[in-house]
Design the sequence.
């Protein structure tokens, strides 16, 4: 009978970009149980909604996380628009989707780079981040910021991209696509990558359903759930949307789903640039959310479904604003996949699930 | 299956670096870059709308002293003030605020009108 | 736009409702608290593809709530969060951190009406009072001397 030991993992660890602590109960080299501990970067941003009026609060939501920055401002704005019954102009909706999909490309490339770095493939890591830099360049050219875009506000967007610039973005993405194919081939076909990722952190489909996981984590386990496929907002203009799935359920599948979603996002941007309607950029938003009004909305963030809930109280300050981020939903699934895995696979396992701790804690 | 990276590694050896040799090669700002807020005090009417719109409470207006004050280290460059300004006296310029040893504010004084 | 379905339920209906959603294969999309006067409102959201339904329940501060995490394991994060920020105590949860998940420096910062927050405020006030009196005494001594 092997002896049980508790090994603390994190909050600071070379593979973790953000602080999450795990108590790993191990027997020999095998993890029996993992207990997560977060709370190192809880900033109470949900409470701040009572101090800043609903229009200024967009600036705060954008700063919840540096990777999903635009997504959170978009999700917040959409929720307040539902709450107040604001009709967003179609051009604004499409521009929002374009920025959001570009954010997804940058987030997935960042993640692919971190993954490559995690298994010691420094060259691949740098190649991924070199490509990501171009997306950040597009952000800087169109909004003036590389991380905090500040383009979305309640009622629409506050800056335009001219149709000519939009075609320029597609050209940049097309040039990127060729270089990205080489990286994609490396991630999916290289023997050293496959050796490190195959069979790591298996979460079968029925378990994925039970643990309520979302995003690429769920899609890699064969669950066809993607908020984008419901056609809300600008996604309604797409002629078809098929979530990218994999039935392999392991770390490799998660890598594959994310890697292919980059190409899918490039296609979405190209298609929407063709179809973008002309017109106003922002609707006038007047007054305050009514007392007792409630709204929920969901958005597909790079890491999965994000849930927003807002409650008005008749003043320009919201009563309550809740963000249930994809990573907080995936935490239970992550703990489950850690059970029974090798101690040496723990970092890779956590990395393929990609918990974003800043989002989780807000 | 095989090692796919060999070609990429060879290319790395032969191609130029992707990074910029900053500061020898200066950073070029885009026209959109949000660096710092400036106020044209001749056009400013000291109406304080920017102060109310600022989410970071980085602005202050003193009507008695005819001054407009910004704390550039609190400012988050969100452009809420620039968009809200009724006289378009505020503008966003691309240069970032220089690094400093201590946080300081910048105060601009509105010149007295000639015909007053 | 997501469907906006809100239903009010009572505490005794909760377990039956959650079981019925679980049996139909819906997933728990969200569980969060919000403070309403001296009560706490809990919102349970369930989703199945594009469908989304929200259950709203008003509970008293300090009331014990049956946990949903045995049925929906992903809820353990939300439950511990509600406990730390609102003082809602869930019974029978999967992992119970006992108020040490976020470890806020002030008890239940989002719900000032909860008992721990009230106790904390009272003790903080008493400490401030004692300090003020202590200062007065010190000043008094100086004037006597």
Sequence:
């Amino acid at each position: 009978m092997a002896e049980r030991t508790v090994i603390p993992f994190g909050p600071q660890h070379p593979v973790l970009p953000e602080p999450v602590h795990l108590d790993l109960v191990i027997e020999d080299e095998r993890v029996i149980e993992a207990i997560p501990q977060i709370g190192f970067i809880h900033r109470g941003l949900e409470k701040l909604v009572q101090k800043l009026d609903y229009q200024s609060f967009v600036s705060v939501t954008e700063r919840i996380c540096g990777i999903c920055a635009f997504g959170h401002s978009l999700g917040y704005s959409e929720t307040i628009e539902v709450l107040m019954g604001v009709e967003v102009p179609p051009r604004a909706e499409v521009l929002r989707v374009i920025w959001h999909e570009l954010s997804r490309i940058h987030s997935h490339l960042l993640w692919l780079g971190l993954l490559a770095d995690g298994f010691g493939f420094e060259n691949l890591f740098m190649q991924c981040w070199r490509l990501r830099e171009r997306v950040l360049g597009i952000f800087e050219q169109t909004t003036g910021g590389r991380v905090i875009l500040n383009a979305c506000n309640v009622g629409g967007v506050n800056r335009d991209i001219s149709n000519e610039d939009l075609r320029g973005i597609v050209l940049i993405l097309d040039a990127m696509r060729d270089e990205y194919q080489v990286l994609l081939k490396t991630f999916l076909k290289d023997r050293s990558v496959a050796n490190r990722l195959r069979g790591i952190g298996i979460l079968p489909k029925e378990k994925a359903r039970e643990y309520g996981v979302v995003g690429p984590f769920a899609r890699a386990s064969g669950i066809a759930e993607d908020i984008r496929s419901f056609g809300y907002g600008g996604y309604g203009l797409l002629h078809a949307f098929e979530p990218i799935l994999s039935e392999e359920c392991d770390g490799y599948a998660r890598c594959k789903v994310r890697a292919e979603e980059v190409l899918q996002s490039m296609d979405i941007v190209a298609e929407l640039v063709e179809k973008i309607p002309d017109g106003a950029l922002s609707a006038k938003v007047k007054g305050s959310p009514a007392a007792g009004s409630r709204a929920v909305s969901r958005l597909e963030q790079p890491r999965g479904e994000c849930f927003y809930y807002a409650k008005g109280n008749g003043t320009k300050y919201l009563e309550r604003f809740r963000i249930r981020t994809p990573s907080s939903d995936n935490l239970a699934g992550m703990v489950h996949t850690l059970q029974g895995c090798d101690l040496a696979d723990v970092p890779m396992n956590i990395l393929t699930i990609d918990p974003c701790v800043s989002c989780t804690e807000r | 299956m095989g090692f796919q990276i060999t070609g990429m590694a060879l290319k790395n050896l032969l191609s130029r670096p992707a990074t910029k040799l900053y500061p020898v090669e200066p950073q070029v700002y885009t026209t959109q870059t949000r660096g710092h807020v400036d106020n044209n005090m001749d056009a400013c009417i000291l109406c304080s709308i920017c102060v109310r719109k600022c989410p970071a409470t980085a602005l202050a207006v003193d009507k008695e002293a005819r001054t407009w004050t910004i704390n550039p280290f609190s400012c988050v460059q969100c452009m809420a003030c620039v968009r809200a300004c009724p006289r378009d006296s505020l503008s966003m310029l691309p240069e970032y605020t220089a690094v400093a040893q201590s946080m300081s504010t910048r105060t601009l004084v509105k010149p007295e009108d000639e015909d007053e | 736009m997501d469907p906006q379905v809100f239903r009010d339920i009572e505490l005794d209906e909760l377990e039956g409702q959650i079981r019925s959603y679980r049996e139909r294969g819906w997933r728990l999309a969200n569980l969060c608290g919000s403070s309403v006067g001296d009560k706490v409102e809990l919102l349970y959201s369930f989703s199945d593809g594009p469908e989304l339904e929200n259950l709203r329940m008003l509970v008293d501060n300090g009331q014990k709530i049956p946990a949903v995490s045995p049925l929906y394991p992903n809820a353990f994060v939300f439950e511990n969060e509600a406990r730390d920020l609102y003082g809602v105590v869930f019974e029978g949860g999967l992992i119970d951190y006992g108020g040490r998940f976020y470890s806020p420096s002030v008890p239940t910062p989002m719900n000032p009406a909860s008992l721990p927050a009230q106790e904390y405020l009272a003790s903080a006030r008493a400490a401030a009072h004692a300090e003020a009196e202590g200062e007065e005494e010190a000043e008094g001594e100086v004037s006597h001397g």
In short: The helical segments of chain B are 6-14, 49-53, 80-84.
